[in-house]
């Protein structure tokens, strides 16, 4: 029985589909939406701005607030409670580090712009390959 579900969210349409899938498929499970604020690099403008902030943790929370609010609104349409969490770091690593605490991960097939997918890599693919728990990829 699936009792705990991790759903990485990034504000993309695919992440919303993944969250909706989890809410429909596991209505009795405890679902957690995880937003990972990426590590700073030359290609991630928002993360670079966070890195320059005086309080990195607070800046990451500010960045994630809108994404997680959208996730909570989606859950509300299903009359479901949704736990939310924020991590700062590399998305794949952050998801995999948390995955062990859940029965499954439900993740969108892709996210972001084409350039982000080319440079950052396919997060869903890497999570599928390395996850210690089953992963459902939603398209």
From TrEMBL:
Residues 1-139 form the UspA domain. Gene3D superfamilies: HUPs. It comes from the Archaea. InterPro entries: Rossmann-like_a/b/a_fold (IPR014729), Universal_stress_UspA (IPR006015), UspA (IPR006016). Transmembrane segments: none annotated. Belongs to the universal stress protein A family. This is Nucleotide-binding universal stress protein, UspA family.
